[in-house]
Amino acid sequence: MKSLDQVDLSLTMSKAEEAERLKAAWPRLAQLRLTLGGLIGERRIGPPVCVVFEGWDASGKGGSIKRLVNPLDPRHFRVLQFAAPSADEKRHHFLSRFVPSLPGCGGMSVYDRSWYGRVLVERVDGFATEKEWQRSYREIRNFEYGLVDEGMILIKLWLHLSEAEQLRRFDARAADPLKTWKLTPDDWHNREQRPAYVEAVAEMLHRTSGDHAKWNLISAESKHNARVEVIETVIRKIEKGMKRQGFDPPGHA
């Protein structure tokens, strides 16, 4: 498992190359999705797919998700965004609020942030006690083991960028009237806490990446590179997951 400082942030890509590689990847992703949904090929339902996005604020999660689902029929996937738990959700185990939106066989869900908030923001800002977030690593591993053992293709992505590039994007958002809504006081607060987050992310990657569900570290210093790396990673992981479940990926259309 690579660490954050091993991610090659020098990777760049032109807008033209991004467009070319996305154009090549989109038909394959759509083909895989329709095959798993039992709509083409052998027409049998395949394993569910769950893509989990985590990463720094302004790392391009939203743009990467947009490009990932671009070729898919909106009826065939769900994108879920998770903010702070409500007062009622806090009355239950922290994992419970994520279960209803998990995909069933043949389905696909994309999580814009996830149960990993327990060992990130809840840890750093003290919303969970040390005993609670320390225990959560085991609970998360067991939860994911159960999902994968049941057949789910679980793909976990961390979008990584430098502190300097994050600041540049914050300033650009602040200066653009159409993007200021993306920048919140919480973003600035989290930035001030970056050293604590670096420690939390490093421990999260170390303690929750295993053969059942490895973390995929995405170089997001270049948004164009991140978008391509995300979709190409998802395609590879879906193909590998299908084979693991005895479900042969279709030949390229």
Q: For the CA atoms, what is the radius of gyration?
A: 18 Å
End-to-end separation in angstroms reads: 33 Å
SSE-based structural type:
alpha/beta
- Arithmetic mean of pLDDT: 96
Question: Would you kindly provide a written description of the structure presented here, covering whatever features stand out?
Answer:
The chain is of the alpha/beta class. 45% of the residues lie in helices and 11% in strands. It contains eight helices and five strands. It has a five-stranded parallel beta sheet, sandwiched between helices. Helix 1 packs parallel to helix 8 and helix 2 packs across helix 8. The two termini are 33 Å apart.
Could you list some keywords that capture this structure?
single chain; 253 residues; alpha/beta; 8 helices; 5 strands
Quick synopsis:
The chain has 253 residues and is an alpha/beta fold. 45% of the residues lie in helices and 11% in strands.
What topology emerges from the helices and strands here?
Layout: H1 15-36, E1 49-55, H2 61-69, E2 78-81, E3 108-112, H3 121-124, H4 130-149, E4 153-160, H5 163-175, H6 185-192, H7 194-208, E5 215-219, H8 223-244
Parallel strand pairs: 1-3, 1-4, 2-3, 4-5
